[in-house]
Amino acid sequence: xxxxxxxLAGKPVQFIEExxxxxxxxxxxxxxxxxxxxxxxxxxxGNDVATFPDFPAxxxxxxxxxxxxxxxxxxxxxxxxxxxxxxxxxxxxxxxxALASNLADLRGGGIVIANESGFDxxxxxxxxxxxxxxxxxxxxxxxxxxxxxxxxxxxxVRDLGLTTKQADRCRNFFAMGLVxxxxxxxxxxxxxxxxxxxxxxxxxxxxxxxxxxxxxHYGETIEAITTQYHVEKANLQAGTYRNIMGNTALALxxxxxxxxxxxxLFLGAYPITPASDILHELSRHKNFGVLTFQAEDEIAALAAxxxxxxxxxxxxxxxxxxxxxxxxxxxxxxxxxxxxxxxxDVQRGGPSTGLPTKVEQADLxxxxxxxxxxxxxxxxxxxxxxxxxxIAIEAWRIAVNYxxxxxxxxxxxxxxGSEPWRIPEVDSLPKIAIEHPLPEDQSGPFFxxxxxxxxxxxxxxxxxxxxxxxxxxxxxxxxxxSVSYDPANHQFMVETRAKKIAGIVDxxxxxxxxxxxxxxxxxxxxxxxxxxxxxxxxxxxTAGKSVAHCHLRYLNPFPKNLEEILQSYDCIxxxxxxxxxLRMIIRGTYLCDAVGLNKVQxxxxxxxxxxxxxxxxx
Amino acid sequence: MSRLQSPLPVLNxxxxxxxxxIRWCPGCGNYSILAQMKKAFVALGRLREKVVIxxxxxxxxxxxxxxxxxxxxxxxxxxxxxxxxxxxxxSGLSVWVITGDGDGLSIGGNHLIHAIRRNLDIxxxxxxxxxxGLTKGQYSPTSPLGKxxxxxxxxxxxxxxxxxxxxxxxxxxxxxxxxDTHVKHLSMVLERAARHDGTSFIEVxxxxxxxxxxxxxxxxEQDQKADNIIELEHGKPLIFGKNRDKGIRxxxxxxxxxxxxxxxxxxxxxxHNENCPEPSLAxxxxxxxxxxxxxxxxxxxxxxxKPRYDRKINEQIEQAxxxxxxxxxxxxxxxxxxxxxx
Lengths: 618, 342
Fold this sequence. Notes:
By secondary structure, chain A is an alpha/beta fold. Chain A is built from 21 helices and 22 strands.
């Protein structure tokens, strides 16, 4: 990397507030690795970062095709940021298909770093180009740097005895090196990563190191690139940070919740994109007493979760929309047996198999209503990658305090996206007290549906003498818990279950609003669209508009003061990555004439899209 | 602590009865199975609080309500999966799954096969009445070809499956069969299943008095059963018949019914070996059907030891702790690259 003296002697460094870079190439080109390494490096440099990996559902789609393009976007900044960025400042395109499918997101005047060998006749044809865009003038609105990465990488690793195929696999490191130079990043963290990852294969480690450095020196040397950019440290709150993805944060939150409540964690799950990483992460932490059970399907995953909950453990399952669909019947069983557990839905594009790796928020109805019978479940939604940690703990608190399954909504955008997480002190995390009835507390027979003042029934663990009882999917007699078909009892039990869940409202914080307490427009949002919404609303306020932002974490029940908030603005705008699910619930619940902004393209909102809608309304 | 020091209570079958009114049809085979289960728990010295009975949906699956143990009446077909989660969480409990031919082999077939192959220490009792009872008389996966029912007025056109063949195909470590009214035999089988270290799978021929009455008469009636069933005994030749003069001999890979005497001695017959690690003998026995002219075996077909999932999953936790130490949240949070902002 350049020392100050070299910098002075070398190319000028331009200080900028923020930048957005996207690496894209074939699924096998190592773009996710390039992205995560650049992210770690930027985070360690003290920037605020937000990332957006975007990859196809196929593991290796035919090479060179648009279907196989995998991308990773990083937004890094010297101020607080909430999104991975609307427009890209620098685009690394490893082949023609990558350029074709990503160029639309590059801002005018932006940089294209193109791997020349990925633009040969075959690649151009596969990407649908008649002529080479690197040569035909079609990219004149951008700064284009074609680089023969294949040749330069092969040269850099020449005497290491690698096959051409092996040498070509180092190309992503060359590309990284070049971008590291462009944004004045240290090579150190990535060199450490190479040592850690490839230490056992010294020739591979050596090759990657050389490719990385070759890319960096290429940037220094090549005359075509005239300027280096530098983004200063962000002014983050004091503390120790790490970069974290939503799925990892959820897994850590589950472990923390188990520890803070004195339980072993049981996760019953069936692999499904984009939730599998929760299963993977938890499987690695068995030394925390974590039991992971890979079930034969999602039905079994939830059934086993219910079994573990009945057995007195902290039980959870993690899946995506199609998995929740399979779990619907068992969710009803969890509700009628009133056992505490967490059900995590990492949403993806639907219906059916839909868009497995793309984002959508279209499971809200399924989460709130998707079961037979009157079947209320508390629903919470995480707003960002690091928020997934907190939501796991909060959901478990509600589950045990109200003896109920709790559904957590995440989505593929925040599950795979990352941001800096200020690591909490363990002692600062809430302790969750759980009481199980004991035999010595029993003066008479044990009644499984004897409720406390919050309408919550006792959680008796099988194996406890004197508390033998039967629960199940048939309606039960109030208090005693025997099977009952009595009409009045059924009405009472249905209403009691509903009241119990509605009563959670007294145990959750009042809803907060960012911005004026009353005004012309309120932007109401939930889930992973938080970053785009708050950024757009704050920008609109800076431009003098009367706009506030209200982001819901609790979707069932809604916070007590939500109605009052909704009445304090002339207009309510609800941006959602669906066709208006929260809007319909808000309209139905509060007779509130909310307006929607709805997008179902498998992509998050851009800030500009929300800004434009705000413009239109106020 | 005083509880632990006092001698174990002596229970009788009535202690295992819950107060719930039993709602099976008068004459249903389930009454007998329920009675034998209570007796078996007494004989085994099981404490009521240590027993959990998990069931799915169907007539058989109401059984947990009638036992004064812990009980979980779940949803259709999912009892093996629920029991798996429970057993992983509380491996010290005696977990029983009660299911039927529809619940276990139709809607719950997937869970049944995976529960069996994982070999947790649970006991699965499948009541086979070859009909859907609770939905009032449709054909089940074990109904014979041609069976006329409400949903097959011209006769069933589905090939039936045989529960024990399925279990053996799923690497079951304990496979047995008994009959609802053969009370002593049923008690013996239940006790042996309970003592088995791993998943035990028991098929019980059970009579549905309303929708499929007499389906098992050939195996139950005093004048027919001796010729139509064969009681398996470990290490003994397969002999049956009123006069115990018929046997099963292997002809290549095929079993055949032979008459003892006439140049055929007991030593020529097939000898039962329930501990044979290779399950082919058990499978062959499971394929002997009445309609094909064979006596149907009852008793323990197969009983072998294999690693238990519920034990292994907890062993892995101990191994992880030995290797990595007891998990520390502070360290977990700080794993990977961190940086500090002052």
